[in-house]
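Let us work through a complete example step by step.
Step 1: write down the sequence.
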Amino acid sequence: MAKRKKSWSKNLEEAGVRIRIYERPTSSAVWYSIVAEGRKVRRSLETSDRQLAQERARAIAQGVARERISGADVHRGLTLGQVFAAYRRHHVPTLEPYRQSYARRYVEMFTAAWGPDLLVADVDQSRVDLYVSGRRSLQVLPPGLKPREDGKLRRGGREAKPPRDGTLHSDFVWLSSVFNWACGRKEGGRRLLAENPLRDVTWPKEQNVRRPVARHERFVETMKHVEAVDPVGRLACILELARWTGRRESAICGLRASDLLLSEGRVLEALAGAGMDEALAQYMPNGALRWRDEDDKMGLLFISPISRQARAALDAYLARNPRLGDVVLFPSPAKPDQAISRHLAAKWLIRAEELAGLPKLERGTFHPYRRLWASQRKSFPDRDVAHAAGWKDTRSMKLAYQAADPATVLRVVEHVG
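Step 2: predict the structure and record it as tokens.
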């Protein structure tokens, strides 16, 4: 058995300051460790060359020595406000509009809880606990839930309630993504952050995750009232596609007329254009849909066959709303040249369910139909099910979408060995 390679390290002293440089098995760069301002600082020296690393480490030690003499804080680093400012300037403009609004909301909440002058390097467990406490006591609120100056709710707003653990988990997942972005962002040849300060802290995680699964009966009853909500037929077709394709509502709403591959010629043309095997066309007897990478959550392109039910829904919709060329399939009522938003489609669906006398599924509109579709196909090979509905891997599909079958659970309970 091969011997494990011994890690390299070296202790240096410069201007009366001790500094240790070393190699980490998980990093190609040389790192340094030094005590500054009463705390141990560990950072990458941004080089794998040992000689250059020693020169940079000695320079850092000299800086610490000057700091101790003059009181200057050379290890101060960036503040929370500075990191957020860089994130808003360089990364937020590249996000989709709804993700930009999420970013603005999170920035406001974390800034309110910790203040813009907090050193990012000082984000620790106590700060995380402080944020969690503020959110649960409603001292830290999302902008949309803040009451007006007279104490009344904003128009269209709802009364604030203490967030669940899953909501708090999402808050810190977003913040961690910002810090990871800053670790990869370089300005002046140096990274904004050397490491993510959240890597060694814990925050709440939802233990009882709400992942409702719609019943087929809910679909049938809702379909009886979709015309009352949207006489044009968009909601009817979107809901049918959600039921019979298992796709996300954002991908369905983003479909264009050119993505409908309803003839063998169109299927062959799309497969060839995507660099896929043209032989796949023989397994698409009802046609196919092109799910564009720009509308996919994971940024993946799929050309997937459709069922007879999905084809019938598309034919019925096109008979009422002919759409040709590279135009949106489901136009927005306010801006016909743009696709309907998933938020409006969800609002319409909730209204149709209310008309049907159905209770609202907690934390669920279209997604419960995606879970229904996946759960009904548990007997098929995981990889085929994931490919059909656009999952990048089978793990997330099995964990978050395929629900336990109650009949099988009963057989497990009653089984006698």
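Step 3: interpret the result. The first strand starts at residue 9 and ends at 14.
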